[in-house]
Design brief:
The complex is a heterodimer of chains A (about 350) and B (about 350). By secondary structure, chain A is mainly alpha-helical. In chain A, about 70% of the residues lie in helices and about 0% in strands. Chain A has a single domain, classed as ABC transporter involved in vitamin B12 uptake, BtuC. Chain A has helices spanning about 10-20, 20-35, 45-65, 75-95, 100-120, 125-145, 145-150, 170-190, 190-200, 205-210, 215-240, 250-265, 270-290, 295-310, 315-320, 330-335; strands at about 155, 240-245. In chain A, helix 3 (about 45-65) crosses helix 13, helix 8 (about 170-190) packs antiparallel against helix 11 and helix 12 (about 250-265) crosses helix 13. Chain B has one domain (about 1-345): ABC transporter involved in vitamin B12 uptake, BtuC. Chain B is built from 13 helices and 2 strands. A two-stranded antiparallel sheet of chain B has the order 1-2. In chain B, strand 1 and strand 2 form a beta hairpin. Chains A and B meet through helix 6, helix 12 and helix 14 of A and helix 5, helix 6, helix 11 and helix 13 of B. Chain A: This is Branched-chain amino acid transport system permease protein. Chain A: It is found in: Cell membrane.
């Protein structure tokens, strides 16, 4: 839409560099000041915010694989759990600093991603998803059975990252991580790599014919997505302070998957945008209808089904159709920013 | 007809010098060796688990092959089977308690299975009409992935619907048939296991006969090979798709009701059969129904041996690693063909 020869003012340049639209930046600011606004400054609401931000970050990284190269990494939470356990074990047994532990978790997860990426190379679509799923099952089984290392289902005690009872610093750290993850993923999609990813996701044969090497791109996509998952897993371990193999369960992956797809596949920001209202609605339904256990999950399954049948593009497509095409100049700037392909 | 059966039998035998044949022979040898090492109950366990697994994974293979749906909610139809089995059998045993002479003592469990089958089939029809037909009407592009995500949502709804309406507690029965275990050459088999085995054998045989020798079965196979071609020769596609869906759900429900004495009904009971059925289907090659029967016994043997020699809890780790290894060298599965279908996309 916009040509880059036009000179941008510094604010727009910054926005362009960080891949945010004015609205995106605004919502980020709202999220940043939310823990100080009265109804949200209670501990349990901050905990909801953290879990929403966590799901949002996971959804971004998940969408990086699922939306771009069109392979559902169905063992994603198991890889996140691998990162969490690596970090926790290094910190608890070797006395490493939690920050280094998180990085190590990311490295371990990246290694796993490299392995899964290499193995699923020959497989496509649903085969690859299943193979990643079986990897996840095997990892979860290992975490349950290697009791001497992980203490199995009894749970492993982990030191928290910050030595305070308050959850606010965790929230800001996670928010910063979310922004960094978003910018990283968005930067990658802007380079020629992102174009290659999308080509592979849409039609692998055609991509191969036009000279794109699927081996390199698929594996590097997996590695990046899994590495982010591992770092997030490290955060999870040092935030909750207790780690059980349950976090590797398929149902957790399903949660991330639902958020990513309801948000809109391939958009990266859709999942993050939808995660906050979604998690809050779920928690509200659960706490207000506590005599009907499971109703929130029934509703969320129904929502996933509805979105898949009637609106496969998810929230991102809805937003792009009804908000971005507006004629109002002010609103258009708010929703689109100056550069066209940003959040 | 006898000649036809004989012919197809010899065709099967000729395949034996392929990978499929080798793996079947290895399975049989390993099963015999383990039986000699640890006793006959291993073999019995393998056959009972494998038989029921065959029912679940046949249904899964059918939905994959005919409807092109990677069904993630298949375990939930197993769960529906256990639920129906629990309520029907409790009603029957209450009646039997007051009328001990009635013939329901013998026929009750079979009635339970039939009830589960009918409810499972109805559930399959409802699923097809309400969900998959709607999706099919709207889009066929990227069908496999969309259908997969739909079934994920369906699974969440069914699991939590069970919790919402029936509670999260264990709903189990003591057993279908009381009485002493049967003894065959020093191996004691409880009557329930024999019953489950007979049910599995009869259903697999009936199903195989249905798929091979009836017009409807041939139509289903035709649709699985080429949808457009099937339409051209005058096969009603919608009817076949609905029938297939209800058939595969009914198979899963039969397995659920048949194994009620081992697996009490609770919301997430379907997860384990689902994992196992996916192992089988991937191992057999997607959509291969007869291969799925053979592979069920292989996976069941693998599971039983893992529990016996390594310990319980490892039965997800070892089979999944083994299957990953097999898939690395043979991506299309043991019985799979190299032909690329819609599922590869």
């Amino acid at each position: 839409m916009n040509n880059s020869t036009q000179t941008l003012n510094p604010f727009d340049k910054l926005l362009d560099l960080t891949c945010f639209t004015p609205l995106g930046l605004l919502s980020l600011l709202v999220l940043a000041i939310l823990p100080m606004v009265p109804p949200f400054n209670q501990e349990y609401l901050i905990r909801w915010l953290i879990s929403a931000a966590f799901i949002a970050s996971m959804a971004i990284a998940f969408d990086f694989t699922a939306g771009l190269i069109n392979i559902v990494n169905f063992g994603y939470c198991a890889i996140m759990g691998l990162g969490a356990y690596t970090s926790a074990i290094l910190v608890e047994r070797l006395g490493l600093s939690p920050w280094l532990g998180m990085l190590a978790g990311g490295l371990a997860a990246a290694g796993m991603g490299l392995m899964i990426g290499m193995i699923t190379l020959r497989l496509r679509g649903i085969f690859a998803a299943c193979l990643a799923w079986f990897f996840g099952l095997a990892l979860m089984g290992l975490a349950t059975k290697l009791v001497w290392l992980t203490r199995g289902p009894m749970g492993m005690r982990v030191d928290r990252l910050f030595d305070t009872p308050s959850n606010v610093p965790f929230y800001y750290l996670l928010l910063a991580m979310m922004v960094i993850i978003y910018i990283t993923c968005k930067w990658v999609t802007r380079t020629h790599m992102g174009v290659a990813f999308m080509a592979i996701g849409q039609n692998m044969e055609a991509a191969r014919t036009s000279g794109i090497d699927p081996v390199f791109y698929r594996v590097s996509n997996f590695v990046l997505s899994c590495a982010i998952g591992g770092v997030l897993g490290g955060f999870y371990a040092h935030y909750y302070g207790i780690l059980t193999p349950d976090i590797m369960h398929t149902s957790k992956t399903v949660e991330v998957l639902a958020v990513a797809y309801i948000g809109g596949r391939g958009s990266l920001w859709g999942g993050a945008a939808i995660a906050f209202p979604f998690i809050f609605a779920m928690e509200l339904i659960r706490s207000s209808l506590s005599d009907l256990p499971g109703i929130n999950l029934v509703l969320y399954g129904l929502l996933l089904i509805m979105v898949m049948i009637y609106y496969p593009g998810g929230f991102a497509q809805f937003f792009n159709t009804y908000f971005r095409q507006t004629g109002n100049k002010m609103a258009s700037y708010l929703f689109n920013g100056v550069a066209a392909d940003t959040k | 007809m006898f000649q036809m059966i004989q012919k197809s039998f010899w065709e099967q035998v000729r395949k034996f010098n392929s990978l499929a044949g080798i793996s079947i022979i290895i399975t049989i040898v390993v099963a015999l060796a383990a039986t000699i090492d640890r006793g006959g109950y291993l073999l019995v366990n393998t056959i009972v688990t494998g038989g029921m697994l065959a029912l679940v994974s046949m249904g899964l293979a059918l939905t994959l092959g005919v409807l092109n749906i990677p069904m993630f909610a298949h375990g939930e139809f197993f769960m529906i089977g256990t639920l129906v089995g629990y309520y029907v059998f409790n009603a029957i045993s209450a009646y039997v308690g007051s009328h001990p002479e009635s013939s329901l003592v013998f026929w009750g469990p079979m009635l339970t299975i039939v009830a589960a089958m009918i409810i499972g089939a109805v559930a399959g029809v409802i699923t097809e009409l309400l969900i998959f037909r709607q999706l099919r009407k709207r889009s066929r592009e990227n069908w496999v992935m969309n259908a997969f995500l739909l079934t994920v949502g369906l699974s969440v709804v069914l699991v939590n619907g069970h919790q919402l309406f029936f509670g999260a507690d264990f709903k189990g029965i003591v057993g279908y048939y009381s009485g002493p275990s049967l003894a065959i050459m020093d191996v004691y088999i409880s009557r329930d296991r024999v019953f489950a085995l007979i049910v599995a054998a009869v259903v697999v045989a009936l199903f195989w006969f249905f798929m091979t020798y009836t017009r409807t079965g041939r139509a289903i196979r035709a649709v699985s090979q080429d949808e457009t071609g099937a339409l051209i020769v005058g096969i009603g596609l919608n009817g076949i798709l609905m029938l297939t869906m209800s058939l595969s759900c009914a198979l899963a429900a039969i397995a659920g009701a048949g194994l009620l004495f081992m697996y009490p009904s609770y919301p997430s009971i379907g997860l384990e059969p689902l994992y196992m059925a996916w192992f089988v289907v991937i191992l057999a090659g997607l959509g291969n129904v007869l291969g799925a029967v053979m592979c069920s016994f292989m996976v069941a043997l693998l599971k039983v041996l893992t529990i016996e020699y390594i310990g319980s809890g490892w039965d997800f780790v070892v089979p999944s690693i083994l299957i990953i290894l097999i898939l690395i060298f043979k991506p299309s599965g043991i019985f799979g063909s190299e032909v690329r279908g819609v599922l590869d996309k």
